[in-house]
């Protein structure tokens, strides 16, 4: 039998044993006890009988809720989840365009891991990807706008200083776009390596 299954089953059973311990009134229960309807104090016998009845009811409930079949079922579910691959939207770069702001924003905001350093690194990389992708989108829109103006000027045959300046601006935005794309690729590579390291770490937990 798998060690994960046995370990989780033993843990659940230990917690159930703790819950199943008989309830006992606190030593100073008389200080907080209220008088009955006739104004008399509650007797030791009445309290002991009430606690006994309550413990019997709880024991019956625990047997129904925490049956051996239920414990086995929960342990098997945990075991399957432990051995199943992580179903996270963070896929390999070849399958997802990380230059798209929409795709990047679909990534989980927090990495599901107990490794605080790895989770913090993932959060920082995701924020950097969003920032770079937003800048790239802005440049693309700016570049498209200048291209449309340049095209209109060429159609009118107006080769003016304005057209020259637009051509220079187009070249500048092309270079900026290329630089941001390069930064995105580097960040994606770091993100991919970090993803692999985090997955390896979570597998080892």
From TrEMBL:
One Gene Ontology cellular component annotation held by this UniProt entry: Mis6-Sim4 complex
Stored InterPro entries: Sim4_Fta4
Q: Name one Pfam family in it.
A: FTA4
> Domain of life of the organism in this record?
Eukaryota
Q: Which PANTHER family match?
A: INNER KINETOCHORE SUBUNIT FTA4
Q: What is the protein name given in its UniProt record?
A: Uncharacterized protein
- Species lineage: Eukaryota, Fungi, Dikarya, Ascomycota, Taphrinomycotina
